[in-house]
Design goal:
The chain has about 290 residues and is of the alpha+beta class. It is built from eight helices and 15 strands. The strands form two sheets. Strands 8, 9, 10, 11, 12, 13, 14 and 15 form an eight-stranded antiparallel sheet that branches. The chain has a seven-stranded mixed sheet with strand order 2-1-3-5-4-6-7. It is elongated and about 65 Å long.
Length: about 290
């Protein structure tokens, strides 16, 4: 059965998600709809990219992903040309990557999702200029029809224009120095866990069995161990792990069930705050008093 995923910034308070799903079911009949998230911060394409990067590999070939975040296109027209001298349009677009399809407006999502990876193909849907009704509720009225055309087996090159370039959202990459990695909190999940942009590959480049400290909240707190699981520490204790996506995560074991909330509330850490890993090889301390026991 065909799988379609939905990622939006629409939330679940209003009818928007129901309307998108109803449109898909009405036109396709038997499909498998999977929600990735509808709680993306409004217009935050980097957060949408994080969510898709973290799970797209779990889906089979041929999956179609609809990303309705900041989805209204900015297209060429008299008003834009008059009022925006440096205007650069963005169109509804289709990315083919690792045998899956990603449909979104070219607003920075694709570049944030891919990072340094290269797509199989990328297309812009320029005919939106001829169907201005698609600019209202674009996720339902434009992205959904594009998904349906793909699922029905139409040749994308027949209704879209192939392109080489796409826009990129500004991403915070870790800063790696001789004995340290400085990253940032890029996501706080529903448990209050702090997910950073420091990857296990970043960490492992410093070798095995090298002492280290992980500092956060302006060095108010630190950890000096990576645990395999949350339950490697006692309930309510802080823990650092590399999560399923291979990203460094700081958590409180079942902290979200203990009254004070998760690591974000307990430590006062917010999205964008610094997390720093400092490696301490033998001989790197000037005096014995500088060692931590």
């Amino acid at each position: 059965m065909q799988i379609i995923t939905l990622t939006t910034d629409a939330g679940l308070k209003d009818y928007y998600v129901a309307s998108i799903k109803a449109s898909l079911c009405r036109q396709l009949g038997s499909i498998n709809l999977i929600d990735i998230s509808h709680d993306i911060r409004p217009f935050d394409t980097s957060e949408a990219a994080f969510q898709l990067r973290s799970c797209y590999k779990d889906f089979p070939d041929g999956t179609v992903h609809i990303i309705g975040v900041d989805s209204e296109p900015k297209i060429m027209g008299a008003a834009f040309e008059t009022n925006h001298s440096n205007f650069s349009p963005n169109y509804p677009s289709i990315l083919i990557f690792e045998n899956q399809y990603f449909i979104a407006t070219d607003n920075g999502f694709f570049g944030a999702f891919l990072g340094d990876k290269k797509p199989t193909a990328f297309f812009n849907y320029l005919d939106v200029n001829k169907h201005l009704e698609m600019l209202k509720f674009t996720t339902k009225n434009c992205l959904v029809p594009l998904a349906i055309r793909i699922i029905n087996g139409e040749n994308i090159a027949q209704f879209c224009q192939a392109e080489e370039n796409f826009k990129k959202s500004l991403l915070q990459n870790p800063t790696i120095e001789s004995l340290s990695i400085q990253g940032h909190v890029i996501h706080i999940d529903s448990y209050g866990n702090l997910i950073s942009n420091i990857t296990i590959e970043d960490f492992n480049r410093f070798g095995d069995n090298l002492p280290f400290s992980i500092y956060y909240h302006n060095k108010t707190y630190h950890l000096d161990k990576i645990s395999p699981t949350y339950n490697s520490v006692v309930l309510g204790e802080k823990v650092a792990i590399f999560n399923n996506a291979g990203l460094l995560e700081i958590a409180i074991n079942q902290g979200a069930n203990r009254g004070n909330g998760g690591a974000d509330r307990l430590f006062g850490v917010r999205k964008g705050d610094i997390i720093k890993v400092v490696f301490e090889p033998a001989g790197s301390h000037k005096t014995i008093n500088s060692l931590e026991f």
